[in-house]
Each structure stands twice: as C-alpha cells, then as structure tokens.
Amino acid sequence: MSIKQLSSDGKIAYLIKPILKVLQEAGAQLERSEIKARISDLDDQIAEFAEIEKKSKKTGNTYKEFNFKFNFAIKDLFLIDLLTYTDTSPIRQPFLRFQNSFSAIICHF
C-alpha cells in the first residue's frame, strides 16, 4: 500500500521508523530539514509524498501535507519519551534529544 493511500494516523506511523533510523545513524545534531531530506533519501514513497502540495479549501493557500504528518510524528515520539526537549543552545533554541542505550542524538526542532 502506498503512503498516499494510508489514513492520517497511518501516514504518521509510517514516518516514525525512518525518523528514528536517521537520528540513530547521524550521531550528531541534525536540523529538521536534514531529517526530512534523509528520510526522503531512504524511501521513495516518502520522497514522493514530501513533494505533493495541496490547496486549502478554506483559504486557497497551498501546503504540504507531509510537513504536518512529520510534525505529528515528532510530537508522538516526544509523547512516548523517545525524544526529549533540551535547551542547551547559547541562542536558546529548543532541541530534540533522541536517547537509546548507546548514545544520545540531538536534532534541531
């Protein structure tokens, strides 16, 4: 089944594993745009989904559904304590920290 055919929750669930994989492989700080680029490189379906633009029926503005689903996936990972927010930057930007038994990986939020 294509990611485009999944339910809203299914799309979010589909993104979680690749997000965790790129964070584990990186071993360093990653900006959100870099995480998005890396998960698109891992999976052609994600790359295709990331490029689709939709038009709002209410405002007429265009948006990428992928960005919303990506943000919800990050939020879900935070809610189940796989990601934690830290505030260690001298310019006070929030970070996300992914923790596993071997290392801690930080990415910009």
Number of strands: 5
Number of helices: 4
**Morphology:** globular
Strand residue content: 15-25%
- Order of helix and strand elements from N to C terminus: HHHEEHEEE
N-C termini distance: 30 Å
Query: Rounded to an integer, what's the Rg over CA atoms?
Result: 15 Å
Q: Which range best describes the helical content: under 10%, 10-25%, 25-40%, 40-55%, 55-70% or over 70%?
A: 40-55%
Q: How would you write the strand order of the largest sheet?
A: 3-4-5
Largest sheet, described in full? Answer: 3 strands, antiparallel
Q: List unreliable stretches of 5+ residues.
A: 89-94, 101-109
Structural class: alpha+beta
* Overall pLDDT metric: 81
Structure, described:
This protein has helices at 8-26, 32-42, 44-51, 65-79; strands at residues 54-55, 62-63, 83-86, 95-99, 104-108. It contains 4 helices and 5 strands, in the order αααββαβββ. It is globular and about 40 Å long. The protein is an alpha+beta fold and 109 residues long. The strands form 2 sheets. A 3-stranded antiparallel beta sheet has the order 3-4-5.
